[in-house]
Amino acid sequence: METTTIEPPLQALPTAKEKRYDRQLRLWGAPGQRALEETHLLLINSSPGVAAVETLKNLVLPGVGQFSILDPAVVEEADLGVNFFLEDESLGKFRAEETVKYLMELNPDVQGHAIKEPLETFITKDKVFTPYTLILVAAPIDPTILATIRKHAEALHIPLFYLHCVGYHSHFSIQLPPAFPIVDTHPDPTATTDLRVLKPWPALQEFAREQTHAMDKMSGHDKAHIPYICLLLHYLEQWRNDHNGTVPDSYKQKQEFRDSYVRKGSPDEENFDEACAAVLKSLISPTAPSALRDIFNAPEAMELTATSPPFWFIANAISQFYTKHGGLPLPGAVPDMKAQSADYIRLQNIYKTKAREDCAEVVATVRELEKSTGRGSKLAIIEKEVENFCKGAAHIHLVRGRPLQIVLPDLPVTFGDRAKAMVFELTNPESLIGEYIAFLAWDEFVATHTTSSSVKGGKGLRVPGNNDAEFEADKEKMVGIAHKIVDGILNEAGERIEDPEYTEIKDGIEKICVELVRAGGGELHNIASLTGGLIAQEVIKVITKQYVPVDNTCLFDGVASRSYVLRV
Amino acid sequence: MAVTMQAVAGAPTVNGEGPNRSRWKYLDRILLRPGGYTDEDYDPETPISNIEAAKILVIGAGGLGCEILKNLALSGFKNIDVIDMDTIDVSNLNRQFLFRQKDVGKSKASVAADFVMKRVPGCNINAHVCKIQDMDEDYYMQFTIVVCGLDSIEARRWMNATLVGMVDMENPDSLKPLIDGGTEGFKGQSRVIFPTMTSCIECQLDMHAPRAAVPLCTLATIPRQPQHCIEWAHIIKWEEQRKDIVLDTDDPEHITWLYQTALSRAQEFNISGVTYSMTQGVVKNIIPAIASTNAIIAASCCNEAFKIVTSSAPFLGNPEQNNYMLYTGDSGVYTYTFEHQKKDDCPVCGNLPKDLAVNPELTLGELVESFAERPESQLKKPNMRTEEKTLYYSAPESLRQQTEPNLKRKLSEMLVDGEEMAVSDPAFQIDFRYKRDCGGVRGELNESWLVCIAIGVLG
After folding, report:
1. Residue-wise pLDDT tens digits, A282-314
2. Residues B140-155: pLDDT tens digits?
3. pLDDT single digits (tens) A538-561
């Protein structure tokens, strides 16, 4: 008797994979997951540090496609105190191999590979980085090798992450390609509501009139269910009649409109309350934010070629749309509001239809551009991509990737066009630029105290504070280098900071330097784990091209428990 | 300083225990040296023995709990207890990294404890598969610090109130720092509470506003969103058609039934967007969760625990200092670390009644409903009384029946302006902060959580 229960359509029931990944698919969806699964990540690790291993843990769990760890070292006992992905039986075995083995236990769908070759020889091989989609480098590293990696990453347009994790402090910088656009930025839903009440199109105005024309004769129930958008449009018509066809523009006028035209409703008329609450945020013209106008005016958008990435074709088409209509394509979403079901659905459809029309116009322009640039049909831009762009146009983000800053021996640290901005950071008490400078000093220390282990008598990488005999001397050296960098910034920018501020800045940096030397290159597991969380999150954003990644340097201070993002 | 150096280089001899600490080379290096922020009298000898002696209680062995256990073990802690009554579900495996497919259905606390003990020899973890409410004060009294990685506000409030209630000014050991983490998608927070000394979870309740509920009449008559159709199936239709079956949100057949019921209602109203996944999300109140955010928040909590125990750097939660870190990672990386102020009228750690402005025309029933929605109270089954009389009790049944007629009465009929009213909720069964001097008898009002609310009648 009960055998006839209707089964839901097959595609609706979650697969095993969807069940496993349910909690993350709710954030980045199937396209994000696909991008993650197509990724092959390379980690270059030359120290016992595990911030990068913890990063991998947070990427293996959600199902990154493949990862490789380059690390020629053999497991020592001290590794067991920091690395959760080793066991006592790992002692004496290759650290990369053992770590890969235990990381792979986390997710049977992920492939891991160990590279036990020394970095010096690895990077000399031809096309050695082509299999990878993202590179992660953990400090310390020979800076000349890091420079080589940077060069390859730039040429191949592979995102490159460089990180430090020392004692209570950590840092990472991201080198992205020079143009890194993100369409799906996931803005807050309240920020994306775009109702066009100031510029209603005929269908919307018509609907509002229909809903409101007999307002005074309506039953209380019906009046209390007029969608608030219609109320706003209705009272805006009244306002226009009273104000020579203009709309409330200034803050004061909007307040007046709200208090004298819309007015609060009776206790049952929540729709009037909704209308009042929406006045200030809905009575806005659909202008493009400056970040989007920068995209419109970018050389890549202005000078399209047959092989330009689709992003720039769509940007150009939307720019044309914007110029023609004085507004962006309508996103088309309608927030929930008090209304009868049928009325609400009709209203939703009015917005959806207009959004589709706007999008169709942009698609047509894209097709014209494809034709005029001679773009082949194989490269035809997918309509869905145009649709996504139209929906999120106001929140589209473009990161202009900058090359990673590398401290080379015998060369002063310079900031170029960012020098003046760095001076400002130095005077901002919220900024953690002091920590960044301390890490630059740390890198300079490594660069000037390292002798290649391949050279006879070479000791390999030496980090400050790694032996007790030189603890005090290393502190002094580190502070000296860091203070030199501060003065270098001021010189480069041609600015001065007067005392007592100048001394305070230097004292603050000295404290961080002392902390870095104290750790002797060692990590605190908590800070490594936290940093691994931050970096994994940023890797996911970069891979999925969703949400907004750090541009371009992030610092964490585990003493004060706070982070800071710096554009270097 | 010279002593410090030797201790690093030579064989470990902390407190004469003498086990080999070469595993902890990097940790010890930091602890045995003074840093840029340590006190002048920083004694490198004590941190390691403090860590080894400390007993940490971890509440929750889920997304945060797995990370917390790993972090504490790799911070050198040796004595840990973990409480979690939950079992492992397949949807946990994308972040709860101590669990494997074969563990699905087993206890989270036990599997997590066994795994960490195997990976980090020398660390002892006791797993308790039970509710926090099953443990008594004597149990909680043995710990140095409590670290919470929970997904329920109710459990946090219970733990917080219990720890506040345990504070005995005569006994410094009775003050247990509470470190609490929480995440949702790319966002999270970690906070440190020194019960009675700094702002507590109850003081901070307004940081988590309850979600606005959809009015029942919308669900019943004018649905507009796919979620409305799902809630209709969930709240109204299930009761109507399957009231003899207890809804199990983990039973695919139940979710399928709700999904189909919601789908046909949505079709009737031309509403699009009802999916199986959304149905599951709405009825289970699923919050997106990822490994990276859990790693960040759990590590922040453990970092604070580590600093408190070792004094190796300043920690959050010192009175008049920052005690709260808010984290947002969806746009760049952003933290806001600040001092949340203790509230004098906090029902748990304050001593002043809270002013509550109400419309005297409101009925008691309407006030009861509002307690569930007010961000600062969030009480679902409030009991209310004044010094003089009982106003309403939601349980036991006899008392409920007796007081039910009051729900229809106006506040102005029952209270005078400025009168104090006590509100409690059986979900937060904790001590009223009251102690007798003799014999340690405490908690005479043990059955209730007491909010003193001075009613200010308007108009």
Report:
1. 998 878 999 999 999 999 999 999 999 999 999
2. 999 999 999 998 888 9
3. 999 999 999 999 999 999 999 999
The neighbour count for residue B401, using CB atoms within 10 Å, is 10
Distance from CA of A250 to the nearest CA of B (A): 30
Chain B residues in contact with A511 by the CB 8 A cut-off are: 36-37
Collapsing DSSP to helix, strand or coil, A134 comes out as strand
Of B413, B411, B342, B421, which is closest to residue B379 (Cα–Cα)? B421
C-beta atoms surrounding A291 within 10 Å: 12
Q: Which residue has the tokens 């075995």?
A: A93
Task: Please calculate the CA angle B453-B454-B455 and round it to the nearest 5 degrees.
Answer: 105
Would you call A517 exposed, middle or buried from its count of C-beta atoms within 10 A (0-12, 13-18, 19+)?
buried
- Per domain, the residue ranges of chain A are 16-183+527-566, 195-282, 290-334+356-399, 416-521
Could you give the domains of chain B? 2-48 (no CATH), 49-209+288-338 (3.40.50.720), 216-283 (1.10.10.520), 354-457 (3.10.290.20)
Q: Which residues of B are catalytic?
A: 217
Select the residue of B75, B300, B333 nearest A550 (Cβ to Cβ).
Answer: B333
Residue from B56, B123, B122, B61 nearest B97 by CA: B61
Q: What is the ipTM of this complex?
A: 0.94
Please, are residues A40 and A159 in contact by the beta-carbon 8 Å criterion?
no
- Inter-residue contact A373 to B297 (CB < 8 Å): no
Residue A458 pLDDT: 53
Closest residue in A to B98 (Cα) is A106
3-state SS, A347-402, equals HHHHHHHHHHHHHHHHHHHHHHHHHHHCCCHHHCCCHHHHHHHHHHHHHCEEECCC
Query: Tokens standing for B358?
Result: 């109400």
Please state which CATH number belongs to domain A16-183+527-566: 3.40.50.720
Output the pTM of the full model. Answer: 0.89
CA gap A78, B23 in Å, rounded: 4
Query: Tokens in use for A195?
Result: 């109702």
* CA gap B24, A156 in Å, rounded: 40
Residue with tokens 């919050």: B287
Q: Which residue has the higher pLDDT, B435 or A196?
A: A196
CA distance B224 to A344: 7
Q: Which among B206, B205, B260, B253 has a CA at the least distance from the CA of B230?
A: B260
Q: Which residue has the higher pLDDT, B396 or B7?
A: B396
Distance CA B283, CA A34 (A): 27
pLDDT at B377: 66
Is pLDDT of B388 > 80? no
Tokens, residue B351: 């001593």
Residue B326 has pLDDT above 50, yes or no: yes
* pLDDT digits 0-9 by tens, A402-442: 999 999 988 899 999 999 999 999 999 999 999 999 999 99
Of B91, B222, B292, the CB nearest to A19: B91
